[in-house]
Amino acid sequence: MKKVVLSMAVLAVIGMTSCKNQTEEQQASTETMEEVKEIAMAETTFGVRGNCGMCKKTIETAASSVEGVIAATWDIDLKKIDVNYDDTKTDLMAIHNAIAATGYDTDQVSGSEEAYAELPQCCKFDHTMEMSLSEPASGESGNHHEME
After folding, report:
1. Domains of the chain listed by start with CATH number
2. Tens of each residue's pLDDT in the chain, 148 residues
3. What is the separation of C-alpha 132 from the centre of its chain, rounded to a whole number of angstroms?
4. Over the Cα atoms of the chain, what is R_g?
5. Which of these, 27, 72, 123, 138, has the minimum number of CB atoms within 10 Å of its CB?
6. DSSP-assigned beta bridge partners for residue 47
7. Whole-prediction pTM value?
8. Burial (0-12, 13-18, 19+ Cβ within 10 Å), 123
9. Which residues on adjacent β-strands are paired with residue 75?
10. Which conformational region is residue 103 in: left (phi greater than 0), alpha (psi within -120 to 50 degrees), or beta?
């Protein structure tokens, strides 16, 4: 009987030790993956011309369609977009080009004239409009067409 109890105790200790080692290995693996993700993550902000909520939806959708883009948020009043992306999968120019292909100017690439011609009237922006503003342009009331 003592041998059985002693054998069970030894097996329990071995089982706990191996589970602990496996948990530590999984935790180390998870930490390594998180470090790689942090290293590969890039953040950028650049100017994009546009007017309204419809523009916002199109611009953000175009940026997000690029493989590797994690998040894209365009500020209507400041005329700039914040983008988080995996720089091992894409680069900044691919994001600029995707937005420009929908007809919107970025601070590095002019929008496609054909796509611009197809934009709704409310989205046809002034090509001399300033971008990447630090505060809303004078006369901006914050009232914009919103997507429903």
Report:
1. 41-123 (3.30.70.100)
2. 766 666 666 666 666 655 555 555 556 545 654 554 555 689 999 999 999 999 999 999 999 999 999 999 999 999 999 999 999 999 999 999 999 999 999 999 999 999 999 999 999 999 999 988 777 765 444 444 444 3
3. 18
4. 26
5. 138
6. 80
7. 0.67
8. buried
9. 80
10. left
